[in-house]
Write a structure and sequence with these properties.
- The protein has 297 residues and is of the alpha/beta class.
- Strand 1 and strand 2 form a beta hairpin.
- Strands 3, 4, 5, 6, 7, 8, 9, 10, 11, 12, 13, 14 and 15 form a 13-stranded mixed beta sheet that branches. The protein has a two-stranded antiparallel sheet with strand order 1-2.
- It has 6 helices and 15 strands.
Length: 297
């Protein structure tokens, strides 16, 4: 297929990524046609975060694993590479057996090179147990503060003493994602404390992410990423900026302390309508992007 030929899944055209991000002033380079597949295993979540539109939701609906496998086979047969398979929710650890059943199929050809990703709060026993599954290539942990009391306040659930202890989990696989929220991580000094916390727990990657304006709480507690001046932190160095025009821009830094190195990324802006490289399977339907009316199959 050439650039003028639309890619199709189940007979319908889909938007895929064929060019890499632009790096600073260097144009993006051609890449193999690829997508990220988000697998939403549940709406349910055991936390009640005030900044989340899904907080405290109950698990609803069934999940068709056979249809998910059809989707993955269909992408391969149509010349589209699944760059990353993202297990997400809700909170995946609310349905651990379903996640394990999905993973049982991921070692079968042609899924041997699929990158599996767990997006979990990582703080309560069920999620910590799920993090130890050997199939994960990376694990995303929502970690919005370095103190248990603050985390309990944010999540609306008691965070036990054992929460921020990832025994049995390979820290090289863990990516900590930190929302910037007024009263929590909201300044350069607080960002540095969060960075030190991650290094103390042997994490290798930390992302600072701005709140999406999904409700009044988010709009009132929004912290702009430009308010963080990471370049002012000793031993923190800017490495590169990447962007996709008006749709998305992020920047990367490296922070070192006591011979440990932390890779840091910051998402400066993202167009919520941008879905060129995103497919969502919710257990029933395959969609382009994250919109209810955009059903492919």
């Amino acid at each position: 297929m050439d650039k003028s030929t639309p890619y199709r899944l189940f007979g319908k055209p889909v938007q895929i990524k064929r060019m890499g991000c632009e790096h600073d002033n260097w144009p993006g380079q051609p890449i193999p046609p690829s997508v990220n597949v988000f697998v939403k295993v549940t709406n349910g979540c055991n936390a009640h975060c005030r900044f989340c539109s899904n907080g405290g939701a109950a698990h609803t609906g069934s999940f068709n694993i056979g249809k998910l496998l059809e989707v993955l086979y269909e992408t391969g047969h149509n010349g589209i590479r699944v760059n990353r398979l993202n297990i997400t929710g809700g909170e995946p650890s609310c349905v651990p057996r379903l996640v394990e059943r999905i993973l049982e199929h991921m070692d079968e050809p042609p899924f041997d090179s699929i990158h599996v990703h767990l997006n979990t709060n990582g703080l309560l026993p069920a999620s910590q147990a799920l993090m130890k599954h050997p199939r994960w290539d990376s694990i995303s942990v929502s970690l919005h503060h370095y103190e248990r009391a603050k985390l309990s306040e944010l999540y609306g659930v008691h965070i036990p003493d054992t929460a921020i202890s990832f025994e049995g989990v390979n820290p090289m696989k863990v990516n900590a994602s930190c929302n910037l929220i007024k009263g929590y991580i909201d300044s350069t000094a607080e960002a540095r404390r969060m960075m030190d916390f991650c290094l103390d727990h042997d994490f290798t990657r930390l992302g600072f992410v701005g709140l999406m304006p999904v409700n009044d709480y988010c709009r009132q507690h929004l912290v702009e990423l430009d308010e963080l001046h990471l370049e002012e932190i000793p031993h923190c160095y800017f490495t590169e900026s990447q962007h996709r025009g008006k749709d998305c821009r992020c920047s990367n830094y490296l922070y070192n302390k006591h011979l440990k190195v932390l890779d840091i990324y910051m998402r400066h802006y993202v167009n919520p309508s941008y879905c060129e490289s995103s497919l969502l399977f919710d257990g029933e339907y395959l969609r382009q992007g994250f919109y209810e009316d955009n059903i492919i199959y």
